[in-house]
Amino acid sequence: MADLLTSVLQTEERLAAQGVESQERVAFFCSNSSRLLVAILACWRRGVVVVPLSTRFQMPQIRQALEEMGCSRTILSQEYRQKVPLDDAITLETLVSLNTTRCGDLLWDQLALEPSQPASLILTSGSTGRPKGVLHTFANHYYSALGADSNIPFRRGDTWLVSLPLYHVSGLSLVTRALLHGGTLFFPASRSMSLAQCLAAEEITHLSLVPLQLNRLLEDANACGVLPTLKAILVGGAACPRSTIKRCAELEIPLFLTYGSSEMASQVTTTASHAAVKNPASSGRLLAHRELKIADDGEILLKGETCFQGYIHANQLERPFDREGWFASGDLGYLNPMGELIVTGRKDTRFSSGGEEIYPEEIEREIQAIEGVERCVVVAVPSGQYGKRPVAFVTMQEGRALERTDFRSELLLIERYKIPDAFFPMPDDQRGRMKVDRSALSQRARELMKG
Q1: How confident is the prediction for the chain on average, in pLDDT?
Q2: Alpha-carbon distance 44 to 142, whole Å?
């Protein structure tokens, strides 16, 4: 394995030569790679705040983010040079020499990072659609990793497949997890290399997924043979279908379900190993160094050592905390008698139909339990009679037809008024996304219902 620390120190010197100074905010527009990892660590060594941008962004979004976050420089992969025509951008390949698939054996202490210093800005659009940067310190990331490690150990000799983008907190958290005990991160050799191919070719011990990725792996016979041999498969970002959890239990796959947020530096609660099948709705118990309580209206309130410093918006820090330091997550849920968190939905997606409260996430879970359904998103459309009504967008598994599925007769576990008025195929521009654009789907649903 290449000497990761040596590469980080060399890259730090090149950053200095480029005039990048401590306390600057540097944006990244790069796909996952060992080079990206080295550049992030080198920036941290230099005291630079890293601002990873989604590679789905178009140029207007990029310019807006650079301005809103107060970024002084941009580092981008060569493959994006034409898409992002910024004259002063630093090319990642000229900055970092190391090009490998496996990176590890590096510890927090070797980087000599100051815990209270700002480390990262993870972008989130929130309910306004305008980008806001979630500001974390090194201490936030460290305690997030420490609490997560108490539930899912990740040690030197283990290898975690980097299957989520580093511009998401769930991806970036793998970097800080690896620094705890010198674990190894594996980066696929190319973007065309599937997760199933990675599992077949490499000795992977840990894996992070969203439910969509897990479902696709379960459709691959070879992957199904490998998944039970892993130490942990962490699944979050959306509710995991009951049928998926059941299938994992049948194959004795070490499935861990989690609830987390960008603001809390990734995981907040997580299930124990093989516990998901006992209560598929559970997101597990609170991890160390976090605090959680449920407000009177059911909103999940959060604080603790992992809680962010605030939002950067229009290059200004906003601190959205109450007098006691609690952050209102916007998520709804409750704690069951065992102290496990049950997430019921989002405050901003909940709506009323004919005087009845509807939680789209509840309907999505039931639709995703139907055989042949890969993914579902439910949105509200205006209704003259009821105020609003639910409409579903569905992705079917390969070989399954949407029009041949009788959803209404299958949905026996929810009240009739919660059954969507229409079921549409998921638009192509939303397929494969970790998180779909609900506002875009709401607009599309209005258009389709009018038609």
Answers
A1: 93
A2: 13
**CATH code for residues 138-309+328-343:** 3.40.50.12780
- For the chain, the domains span 138-309+328-343, 351-450
State the helix-helix crossing angle for 34-45 and 169-181, rounded to 10 degrees. Answer: 70
pTM, to two decimals: 0.90
More reliable by pLDDT, 341 or 355: 341
The pLDDT value given to residue 241 = 85
Question: Taking a C-beta distance cutoff of 8 angstroms, is the pair 53, 8 a contact?
Answer: no
DSSP β-ladder status, 73-76 and 25-29: parallel
Return the structure tokens found at 220. 């691959």
User: What φ, ψ does residue 398 adopt, rounded to 5°?
Assistant: -55, 130
CA of 135: how far to CAs of 29, 40, 126, 128, in Å? Answer: 18, 15, 14, 18
Looking at residue 121, what DSSP letter applies?
Answer: E
Instruction: Give the angle 54-42-92 at the CA atoms, nearest 5°.
Output: 50
Whether residue 292 contacts residue 286, with contact meaning beta carbons closer than 8 Å, is answered with yes
Q: Do domains 138-309+328-343 and 351-450 have the same CATH topology?
A: no
62-79 exposure pattern, b = at least 16 Cβ within 10 A, e = fewer: beebbebbbbbbbbbbee
**What is the C-alpha to C-alpha distance for residues 48 and 69, in angstroms, rounded to an integer?**
13
- Burial of residue 402, with CB atoms counted within 10 A of its CB: 0-12 exposed, 13-18 middle, 19 or more buried: middle
Q: At residue 396, what is the residue type?
A: M
DSSP string, 7-26: HHHHHHHHHHHTT--TT-EE
CB 331 within 8 A of CB 262: no
Kindly state the tokens that stand for 280: 């598929």
Q: 17-30 pLDDT, tens per residue? A: 999 999 999 999 99
State how far the Cα of 136 lies from the Cα of 263, in Å rounded to an integer. 8
**CATH classification number, 351-450, choose in 3.30.300.30, 3.30.420.110, 1.10.10.10, 3.40.50.980:** 3.30.300.30
**Distant-in-sequence, close-in-space partners of 317: CB < 8 Å, separation ≥ 6:** 135, 309, 310, 311
